[in-house]
Write a structure and sequence with these properties.
Helices cover 50% and strands 11% of the residues. By secondary structure, the chain is mainly alpha-helical. It is globular.
Length: 156
Amino acid sequence: MCACYRAAGVCARILPGNVIWRKVRRMDRKELAVQYKHSSCNCAQAVLKAFEDELDVSSDVLMKIGSGFGTGMGCLEATCGALCAATMIAGLKNDSGLPTVMISRQLLGNFEKKSGATICRVLKGIDTGKVVCECDDCVRNAVACIEEYLTSVGQG
């Protein structure tokens, strides 16, 4: 017999042997990612972990993969870490025959429309003092972009 815990749209069941199974409702992934961001994850790790139930990769490996992308690739100098994570997910889920780099281009354009920029330094307003998009919203937008892509190819 298992116990079921529900919080923020996440159903976590502890099965015999303490194996945890969880299913995330699609509409809640954005907020789940933000919750991860506010706990122990950087922006990239938060997006990756929000899709953990759909990826054949352990939580520990996802955390390691995303560890170098917090505050954008290159510490505010390059692409938003949340967007990098969305592209990683696209690569892991890509069964379309289309090169992942083409999917990445699509994700980048969609993210830029939603967020106003793709470079962490610009998003955070480091040089201008004007924040273009807050981190939480970048995380939400990255999740929305990859969800939209996955839905468009019948994986959503």
